[in-house]
Queue: 3 jobs
Job 1
Amino acid sequence: MSRAWGRVPALVLAMVAVVGLPGCATIPRTGPVISGDVINDDPLEGVFQLAPEGPKTGQSPVEVVRGFLAASAGYSDDHAVARSFLSPERRLAWRPDTSVTVFRSLDTLSTRQLPEDDDDSQATASVTPSATAGADAGAAGAAGAAPGREVAEVVVRAPSIAHIDSSGRYRVIPPGSKAEPRYFGLVKSGGQWRINTLNDGILITRNDFNVTFKPYSVYFPDAGGDYLVPDTHWFASAPGSPELPTALVRALLEGPPDWLADAVATSVPPGTEMAVSAVVVSNGIATVDLTRNARLADDRQRQLMLAQLQTTLGQLRTISSVRITVERVSYNIPSESGPRPVVDPAVGGAAVGIDTKGRMVRIGVDGNEVVKGLEDLDSLNAVYGLASPGVSYDGGWFAALSADRSRLLLSEAGSGKTTQLPGSGFTAPSFDTRGWLWTADASGVRAVDIAQAASDDDRVLVEADWLKDYQVEALRVSRDGTRAVLAITDNGEPHVFLTGIVRDESGRPVRLTQPEGIVPDLVSVRDVAWVDEKHLAVLGRRLPSAANANDETVSAGVDRPWIVEIGGTIQPIDAVAGAETITVGDGASTLIVGTEEGTQGRSRPSWAKISSARWPAFPG
């Protein structure tokens, strides 16, 4: 496998410098839940349309480019204000929707003026019209201007923190990435400077991005049709915008990202497209008209297709139901073709831990409760020492590691027996919803059918060639069973990977897909956990210059939890002294941390000890 970021697509790094020619802790009954800050506002609330200013008479080339950058955040009337900074020849050719590059603020712009013969000038470069997609489209300079026409050139650089591609997928740009200039060629038009050549896409400040863009999920069914799995896309439209339903449907028809594609199914037959240019919404009903390939779907696929569209478009308050047609003809969808797939499955149940006597306990409001029926497992504490427990979603199966991580111990409550699996360097156990127990050790990623754990035939070494030479520090399977998050180190360099789980027809794990790297600016990583279907919790440290959701400045010298939006922003949580492990129940407010002294829960503005039990773990 290539190294950690070899799999991740190259980011367009837009950076800006300007050049022109002269001129109190609480715990609910279901387990430890500590009051805390809301991680993210409702993504469907608080979307505003910016009202940027157009060009002013007598502005210099530098001022025109700055004005254009500020106006690019205004999406009204297809960027009408931003287009007013362009020459008549370029106003309709510029394609702002090809990409978005986010930088911290206009204050980070550095400006300098270059003479025509400066080595950095691109004025003599050949120009591809900006209507052409691609990173080199619209290579700047004022090339293409009529002979004798007065020209100028501006180059822009600024620290970039994120890139959003034409599909709306968000990627964090690591601190220290190479600054690539972006050039603007200007000409005089009607006596005023106007931009004549430029790259497609937009540059936007963090603040403007936060106001204009919001994340939306596009859903895909898992292979069995039991769950719907989200893929996050960012769009610059208010919930009531007529363009947003169309953008979401186009993203759904485009399919899942590469890393997820083999782990989920598609209910939409290949080659199916929108038969008309837009989704029509009337009286709360969204009509999605598809091409004739949609008729190739069988009954179950049609049911899942409707579920995908209803769940995806149902995020918009203007849509209450979805109607599918094929080239304006009704589309039959049997109502009894299967159960509706689950979205964002709940955890439920209390966290477990290992108490000071080496027993498996549930951590609750009134203290630790020893789990009954695990006497055989508990007795092994005297032999091996118990650590890093786990519990299945139904609360009937329990697992733990030996203190030296050389044994994985598995027991069903009340069975009176414990299955022992030998290995080396096991990670904490993770149960999935399909009856498999996951871990990683020196041999690779391993999965065990818990109902047949005593049989070697039901112990799977899951194919994951890309993990060769990596040390897995933690592995957690998502609650829908289609994804896994892994914390790894590569010669001491930390990474967090997201990968899809490919299973055979019986649900048996087969392999992990080529991964997607997230949190590219880690200094260390200790543990990972799922927060919900769209967020992860990562325990570790990031570079001091790393970009946070609200640009908070945090200490890089201590491990802390981070809430990571998959395909989105990263938010720090208050540091926990001595943090070793992290676990989350239903939502970020349930986040708890394990230390050598016990279990810590949120007690704003800091943390409070809620149990003496170590290694807390919610079901899963």
Job 2
Amino acid sequence: MKNRLPSIPVQTRFTTSPINRRSLQALATAILLATPLHAANISWSGGEGDFNETSKWTGGVLPGGGDTAIVANGGIVWLTDVRTVGALNVSEGNFGITPGQMLTCNGALSLGQQSGGSGTFELDNGQFFSNGPMTIGGTGGSGSFKFYNGFINRVGAGSVVVGEGNGSIGEYVQSSGFMNCMVPWKIGSGAGATGEFDFNGHAAANSHDWFIVGADGASGTFKLSGSGSFNKLPTMPGTHVAIGRGNGSSATVLQSGGYFINMSTDTYLGESGNATATWTLTGSSSIAVFSTLFLGYADSASATFELNGGTLTASHILKGESTGATSFVFNGGTLTPRANDLDLLAGIDTVRVEDGGLFIDTTPQINSGFTEHEVGFTVDLLDGGGGLTKRGVGSLTCAGTCYYTGATVVEGGTLYIDDELVASDVTVQEGGAIAGAGTLGGSVTAAGTIAPGHGVGTLTVEDDAVVSGTLAIELTATSGDLLAVAGDLKVEGATLRIELPDGPPLTQPYVIATYGTRSGGGFASIEGGDGYAIDYAYQGNKIAVTPSASPYAGWASNYEWANAGDELPEADPDGDGFANALEFFLDGDPLVSGQPAGKPTGRISGDRFIFTFERSAGASSVEPVIEYGSELDFPFTAADGEDGVVIATEASPGGEVWTVSFPLPPGGKLFARLKVEF
């Protein structure tokens, strides 16, 4: 229109919850029944004026609830109060609802629905109740619906179609207010038609039925910008979002801002026929939320999703059964999962990482019920110059080949490479981990964790690896994790964390790393490896976990034993009554008969029995057991402070003197003996 009336601010409230269709229909019906019915076609005579000017309507009669109001001669009509019409046909001209006013249309709304026609409808801070089909541009004409603010409720029969039929052009622009649509909503429908939906500013809309962009041979475009929210709700069973439906259709979604939310039904990008569909997500604040996002659902439909900015959240992203080409482009923006799925991104023909990079954050959403997400890609990641950044708790598993050449950065959680990362250098920050049973073609610098295997397995690094954080190794009774580094390996200052198997101690060395060369010192600390030693040059170029030699084994290696088995702790090859274990503990000679230097002795002092022996320095890690009783069955074990027993130790030149004092029982008879177990 020539001069849109000034906007009067109103507070617009909207919700993403389904609206009760019955109550809205009841309101529209009440308005209809209260309006006199004329059932006539009443035309505007031309020029610009108020709807209430009877002289400008044919016959001098204002259109009512059963009449079709027609603007076909380039006229401009302003509605300045509350009215009801049976239908509204603006084939050539303009119709506008001024701030604070309301129009109920019981039948069809048609804008520019004639060959060469051009019709416009404006809603500025008012209300529009539509109970019949809405066609914005049809039969070869052009239609424009401009919604600046207010409320629209679309119920009843038919659909909302923006651009219908060959040569038709439709435009729907919403910059604020709330649209509630209970019927199918199509942006471009029919061969040769063009439809565009421009959703911007603070707009809000709920779509309860089908939402289709580019249907049956039409070209459809859906633009989202600003900070509004478009919601597809599951009110009508069996409906979903279709971007590109049917042969000859083309559909484009350009989202540079705002929210697109379809959490309860599927979204088909390239639904059927040979349709082509593209969704481009840009802008730092853009958010698109999907349940399952299909690219190329059926027939030969083709589809492309370009993530250039904003946030894409989905439970699954996969190709359907279409034979058409599908592609996904990462060029900035962030991908976040809504569920655990190792096939989060699967089946897409071409997935490319452009200069802007691939960012994935596996941090669960608040109140999602998840503490972390475990997701995976089963597609190859092709090179477009960018890299991959993993953020947040949880894990990402790359089961396909990663050809991208940009940097791989693990800021949080775990990145599993189970195939090959061909030519990307990896940086693992504190709090992050690189893991898997695949091959890393570039270098690795890890202030976080390197954990070979997905379970127990081998992680291969074809370049250099610098570990300043943690090398996490899991060992089983028969195998273990391995970090295989073809270049230089540096572990100086790092922590080695060993997870040992349940059961008896390991009896053989386990290789945990191999290297071409090794620089720097050893691990700064070792967790979980008590009783084991680290050999940094095992077999020349390997790091191995080896069982540490026990003190007894070291002592026994100093003697030449005549017979097999003479070296065992329980053996007594010199026949002096002191088994080898006691000879070791008391600093004796196992091959020379006689009492060891630290042999036990006993004496009575007043009402106590004093039992004394000397533990050798070499046996300082072995704790003795002293048993006692009034009979030779020795039923009690001495413990300091219990039953009157006092145990004292004192350093000596040969080791440590132990003095155990027992109270004498009635009768004054007490026996004590020393046992050594290891």
Job 3
Amino acid sequence: MMNKAGGPIQLKLWGPARLEYQGRELKLQRKGLAILYYLALEGATRREVLADLLWGHSAASQNLRVELHRLSQALAPLGYTLFKAGEDPLQLPPFVSLDRTPSPGAPMEGLEELSVEFRAWLEGQRSQLMANSSGTVGRERLVQEVASQLTLPSVLILMGRPGSGRTAFAQALAKALGVPFLEGPRGGGKALHYLRPPYTDVSMERILTDRDGLWVVERSSYGEDPKLILELRSHYPAERTRYITLPPLSWAEARASMLANLPFAQAARLFLASGGSPGHLRELLAVPHTGAEVPLPQRVRAQVQLEARMLSLEARLALERLSVHPGPYSQGLLDALEATPYLDELERRGWLVYAGQWQFSDDASRRVLYLGLQPGRRQQYHRQAALQCAMEEQRMAEAYHRLMAGDTADWGTFVNTLPGWTRYGLKAWLGMNEALPMGPSVGEMARGSELALLEEARFGQGFEVDGRHVRWVRTPSQATTSGIMWAGQDEASLLHLKGHVYVENPLGVGISGRAAPLMLEIQEPREARVIFLHGIQAGALADNALLLPVKEELDVWFRVPAGASIRLTSSAESGLIDLEVTSYRIAPAAQAQSAPKVEVLEFFRSAVEAARKH
């Protein structure tokens, strides 16, 4: 069944923070709003995390209960129940949606002064949203936004992963402010002082007494706050302190710069391997390589291992064991890989995050740790994971881990136990192609003038819309589907998908067995869907279910029945998809002779059969 994402109650992402019901603002406490925004952007969250984020003292849990009660009271008159009694982790209900429509101002304005921890989170979100929004590309826009809001003297805590380009960002910021960039505390007057760990050459007194400078303190996304930052939190005025987590490069940003001269598939492969880290990308580009295997540059490996050495030995070894499994972890898998006792340390130091299930905060770092494992250990850990997946009856995940461990498997028997499109997808990946029951229904039609597509909703992580272009950057941490819905047209129309697709799904269909690289669905009210899979032969599973090969260069047309809403999604576990989506009228008979002809696929085979009979 197709579900419309979005509901009658909307959180407005850009401009002043507010919740609207049917276009009217609902009056809420700011901390109540903060809870809703956090759940909307981070997903399911434990109560304990929210309490620490917004209050951080002994009565935090009680304060959170009071705030949740206030939220419930605000929505009860409208007939909505926000959270179930005792619900933990808390999750935003489907009737509350996040409206990402760009508007003037910064995201979530007015929530800056709730707590130091929430402000740090807010600054990180703003950095990412500003960097990925349209307009001046990425980091350039972020530099401009930060420069316009700073008043000297100030302190800027600049967080990022290894290779995230913190120094380059600070240098660009100094240029935008028109002040010199100075390493360390030397010099005075209007200047940007850049401080690197372990900060031994600077005293707190020097920063507190400076009346003209900007002090940029580099901090890793991994580990805990060092002494200098703890002292700044305690003694430096909060209103003159900013926290920025430097986001990775967006795909558009990387493609326009570092990856501009590469073919799409190679550029996508390197981008996914690097997680958008400029330093990691630079190292990958410097290492010659061919084929699908992406090498692990020594400098990148050393940087990640250096960060991991800050963990206790037991936690570091647990992290290495977890690296064999891309994607979220069940509690059983955490136990099997002997990681459960170290979850608190790994979360506190930024390596793991909890979003309904535990997962790596950064898949590129997981890849680096995995590639750094000795082959014997890698094999051992995959076998531990396979055994647990077998106990949980996660057959696809078990098959993946057995394959990666180098164990033999009876694929022929296994694939025939799988349902529907999953079976055809895995068979295609294994080179055991099976013909579909029916061929696709194809016809020729005359293309008329362009029709506007009216967006109804967009949903999920790693997805963006830019005019006619839709883009997905899918990583294993994104366990949910992402994509877009468009409203139906009043008349039958043509839909054109054109662009590039690069997908790295394990086993072709993912460890879940449900990771369709691309899916196109319509509802009018009959439902039909098209699933794109690697290596598949085009054909139909049923009257309303089409399987098509997903090619690196996609160029395909469909006839959409009148009134049919359209849903385009990806559930890929790792991939990059960049498509232009256009809708056209079907040319009327009088113009059909002169109009361009296109080969069109039908959603319903029966529609073609009926047309032939007439």
